[in-house]
């Protein structure tokens, strides 16, 4: 095992809506790897972190939270939809807090070989972040749409609009150090096991984990 001071390798996993990145992370979790779900954690922090709540209300007004103090997601979405400057201001409030939360979480994982940060939006490893490697989960758009239709209460036009607003597959591919193909035909678990083996070897080489 690594020394108590050794921080784990940081692996980012990203992919477009319906690509199956959460399923991939669940497989890694079954292997004993700790997962930081950035999007879920950001939702929790937006509801509970006093600094975020205060600044969001200052930006968007009291309606940004309901009478129970919960984040009014439909209202906020209606305000920032097609308003890129306002969305950027909102992200400036939330993202630094999530980044700090991530750092504190990673510090608590010292001694583990590697950890995974799952997020829908991600930059290349080392580009303004502390990631060592990025894994991109890919799937054909038609398959992604069918998955979301079965999973969510959304229409196909709504899904296509979401995909259009997200980062393109080409942009994601450009930041990938590793790729997982989740097309329904290619076996998923062997791909994860192969990456797990590689990450364990990288952890031994870089952190001395054993």
UniProtKB/TrEMBL annotation:
InterPro entries: Depp_CoAkinase, P-loop_NTPase. Keywords: ATP-binding, Coenzyme A biosynthesis, Cytoplasm, Kinase, Nucleotide-binding, Transferase. CDD domains: DPCK (cd02022). It comes from the Bacteria. It catalyses: 3'-dephospho-CoA + ATP = ADP + CoA + H(+). It is an enzyme of class 2 (transferase). It is found in: Cytoplasm. GO terms for cellular component: cytoplasm. ATP binds at residues 18-23. One of its GO terms (biological process) is coenzyme A biosynthetic process. Its EC number is 2.7.1.24. One of its GO terms (molecular function) is ATP binding. Pathway: Cofactor biosynthesis; coenzyme A biosynthesis; CoA from (R)-pantothenate: step 5/5. Pfam families: CoaE. Belongs to the CoaE family. Catalyzes the phosphorylation of the 3'-hydroxyl group of dephosphocoenzyme A to form coenzyme A. PANTHER family: BIFUNCTIONAL COENZYME A SYNTHASE-RELATED, DEPHOSPHO-COA KINASE-RELATED. This is Dephospho-CoA kinase.
